[in-house]
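Collaboration report, partner site 2.

Our partner group contributed sequences for two proteins of shared interest, and the home lab folded both. The records are reproduced in the order in which they were received, starting with the first partner submission.
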Amino acid sequence: MHGLKKLYLPLLIAALLAGCGDGKKDAESKEKGPTQVAAKVNGTELTVHQINYALQRIPNLDKGQTQAASLQVIRNLVAQEVLVQQAVEDKLDRDPMVIQALDAARRQILAEAYMGRKLGTLEEPGEAAVLDYFNTHPALFSQRKVYRLQEISIKAPKDKRDAIRAKLAASKSLNDFAVWLKAENYPAKAAQAVKPAEQLPLELLPRLAAMNDGQGMLVDAPDGLLVIVVAGTQSQPVTLEQARPAIVRLLQTQARQKAAKAEIDSLKAAAKIVYLGDYADAGKVAPAAAPAPAASEPPAASTVDTAPAADAEAISKGMSGLK
């Protein structure tokens, strides 16, 4: 998507800006005087507006770096333009896949532009909302910990999972359990990881926070089961003042997502939508969310051995910041 924006946005902007020069000035004065044209490639103009647009997309750009960044941007635009011109000469703009990609990028940009204008800038949540979130998520803040976790990811069909749970409960150690998995030809991968509370799935965090060292849980995974053992923890609480910026961002994101869903639902309700053929089921109501993963206890802390190290895999999609 990002690459597609680079492909056609400068062309679109250049087209919109065509004819903005002062026609009363002759060619010589235009070349010498102030101009909105930063470069020309085979006669095609690259404008200051394109440079400014690119600069606005550079995060945390220091004012002192603007001039150097501008020069690099125009170099990049020139390189891009020679490629675009060659692509057009090779008739790639008529290639069906390219046409579809351009259309998909256009649709995405228009949809985002509409939603951005519709939602605008949301107000910051009030102090009461921030305090409520802080107090209702102690495992993230006032009782925050850093967890040393041992994990075994097991691939298994649904009809075998109860047997795996039973064997885990009867095992004296994780190593014994791992040996049994290998003997039964269950693909398994062991891992160790150190993660702060905010990098763990929010739905699992309260249960992990309540466990003692050596205790664990067994949760369902898309293709099997996941054993998670809390090998150790370190308390690292954060104050309300420390957490406030992250909570504000989170609550704003949640409010924006809620408003966006409401707008989409409203537009869909007003539209005539018909799903056809193999996609007829897409119009049916989506199933309710699955219940929370079931938990169980692996061997006691005194008998849990360290699982062998391997490439670490996330328990599930971790939160970025406090998302």
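Second partner submission, folded after the first:
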Amino acid sequence: MTKRAVITGASSGIGEALARELSSRGWELALLARRADLLAKLSAELPRTVGIECDVRDAAAVRDAVRSGESQLGGPFDLAIANAGIGVPSFAFEFNVDDAEQMVRVNVLGMMYLFDAVVPSMIERRAGRFAGVASLAGHRGLPSSSVYSATKAAMQSFLEASRIELSPLHVGVTIINPGFVATPMTEKNKSMPFLWQAPRAAKYIADGLERGKAVIEFPLPMSILTRTLRFVPRALFDRMTVVYAKRKIDRSKLRR
């Protein structure tokens, strides 16, 4: 039976690793990303794969890319993964509204634009799964990552509510919450506890998606820590995380 998936932000990092992993499992893929050169190279390496240049900040472009992928692969998508994301450190004492806007547009609206493009067909067919790559950082507001944490929390809330609403219609929704994964986006960080390599993360995610899991989180120690922090009293949380606000960032490696 043919299985088709569409992945945004597929030219590098978790998106690229997921494309390779799902392809190895027999999925036909439509890969969406802005960097056409990387996308073309990856698509050429994988069988039954098409690469479509697309900026997820543009709702019409996402809709057109999804229709193009369906046309080229010969049918609708069984799985859609909103993976495109950016993360730029955001310090309150030097707040940059342009960076904040871009994170909201890519992380939150980019996910919603893909949702808008694929979920109506899934509802009509009473089949399919939508997944969003959020983050363990969405469990609580983290100093120096206020906007990133906010966007990932917004993704989690949207996906959770959608999961409940779409379940009776036989459309699955999965929240993916990675911890630190070695990707171009995270290379700016000088300290990343419990770091996973992208291929390992992709295999774990693919396993969870194929089992129909509602939430996929990793690594376990970081998941336990961030979930526990949700119940830590405010005063204690403030004292525990104040040092994190001073974390070291390699600004030469920031990706916007």
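Feedback sent to the partner group on the second submission included the following. Strands lie at 4-8, 28-33, 49-53, 79-82, 129-133, 172-178, 181-182, 196-197, 215-218. Helices lie at 13-24, 36-45, 59-73, 97-125, 146-166, 198-210, 220-229, 234-241.
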